[in-house]
Every structure is written in structure tokens, then in C-alpha cells.
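Q: Here's a chain of 314 amino acids. Please give me its 3D structure as C-alpha cells.
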Amino acid sequence: MRGSPPIPRDPQCRFTTVTLLALACLAASALTSSAQVAPPSQTEVELILLGTGYPRPDPQTAGPAAAVVVNGKVFVVDAGRNVTNRLWATDYPLKDIQAVLLTHLHSDHISGLPDLFTTSWIFSRYTPLELYGPAGTENVADAILKMFEVDIPIRRDLTELHAAEGATINPHEIYEDGIVYEDADVRVTAFRVNHEPVKHALGYKFETGQKTIVISGDTRPSENLIKHAHGADILVHEAYLPEHFDRVDSTEVAENLKRYHTSAVEAGEVAAAAGVNVLVLTHLIPAGAEETFIARASKHFTGKIVVGSDLMRF
């Protein structure tokens, strides 16, 4: 049997070999010691507003959506129209979507979800889409799969040959306040908000150790939101201007809308009561009124106020 040649018996060669082995051991020991004393790396956290609009179409503004990115893991909160294009513009790969979390099932918050599901699969998300949301989320998942029942087998089996797992959805329905996701980098807590007559509406809190980010979803002023947002670094909260509803809707409709949303003044009150550091206003009704939103919210909140725009980063 052929093998490696025999090791030479020359003493000089033996000395050289031993010396090299000793040096290698010392180097390995040094590397181990260095690794043991190296400080732990910081968790990288970023909030991106993917869409700050509302049901009225606006070429400059996508529907309601945000991304919280923790060490490269992308958590998408709500999926309004054009969410996929906005996420693509961030340069985070679609395959890095860790989960999609829905605050409620109003059309403007989920109309971009079918596109996000199928396009992220086509572009290399080869694991199931983890979809969190209130009661009814399983029905949404089933409807999306039904919608693409012709498309999926073609792309999976005949043309692009994409991984089958990516063309599936794991729905997680949330019925009470509590932790819905947790790993070594982030804890995500869902909590109920008040968007009556919508029976099931949620907000989400992301805690990383370095930063706490709370996203309200659609709600009127909510004591439960104030409790969960207490001391947060960033509160992302919806806001409207009452005179807009008065101008574009009938009196009855305007009053209905005001009852289940939060005005800019009220958003400032919520932020002050929660003691947050930064208030970011989104789901802006109407767009193009930045100075008015800031003036109203600052009546009660003295911290930093940001009127959100698409692709703004924090």
C-alpha cells in the first residue's frame, strides 16, 4: 500500500519538527486566551420606516410597514402596499426576513403581504415565512397560498426550481399579551391596543438590551400601549389631524374615524405618559403636514419628535 514517505531520522529534522509543534501550540494558546478576554460584540439594531402612508394612494408614500433589523435579522411589522420595493431599497436581502408581524388585518396593513411572500421566496428565502398576527392570520395565510396555487408549482417544480419550503407559511395567531418571539439577540412582545370596532389589534415591543422599540399599529390612545412602551427608546405611533377627516368625509364618517385613531395631540400625550425618548409619527393622515404634526404633538411631549417618511432610519 502506498502512503506518505517515512519521517526522516535526522536529529536536526527532529529538532525542527518539535520546535514548530511547540510554536504552533503557543500560537493556539495565545489565540484561545485572546478569544477568552475579548469583549462581547454589541447587538446591531436598526429601525426602518418602510411605509408611512394610509389607505389613500400616494406615489411618494408606501402603505403602513416598518422593519426592525437585529444583527441582520429582518422583522417586518405590517405589510402595506409597496412594502417589497421599500424593503428592497434598504439593501437587506429578502431572504433575511426572520418574521412578518401583523398589527391587525385592515387592508392597508396587509395588501403588500402576498407580494412580500412570493417575491422573497423567488429571491432566495428558502425557509417558511413565519407570520405572526391576531385572530384571522391563519385565514390570511391560507388565502395567499390559494392565490398562488397556480404559480407556486411552476416556479418550484418546472422553471426556477426554488426550494419548496420557502413557498409555505407558518401562521402564529396571537390571543393575549406576551412574548411571541425570543432568541439570543431580541425579545418581541405583542400587546393589545384599542382599535375598536376592530376586535383584534396589536402593538409590538422589540427589546435587545441596547435599545427598546415599540410600534403601536392602529389604535386610539391606549393605556395598555403606555404600559408596554414605558421608558422605550423609540415609540412609533400613528397620528392624524382631525380637520382632515372633517374636510374630506361626512360628519358621521369623520367621527367614526376619529374614535379609533390617535390625533397628533393625543400621540404626544401618549409619548409623555410612557416617558419615551423619541416619538416617531407614522400612518400620517394627511401627508405633507410635518410642521402641524410636530406643533400638535409637542403640546404635551417635550422629547424628540420625528414625522416619519418612507425609508427613514433610526
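Q: Can you summarize the key feature?
A: The mean pLDDT is 89.
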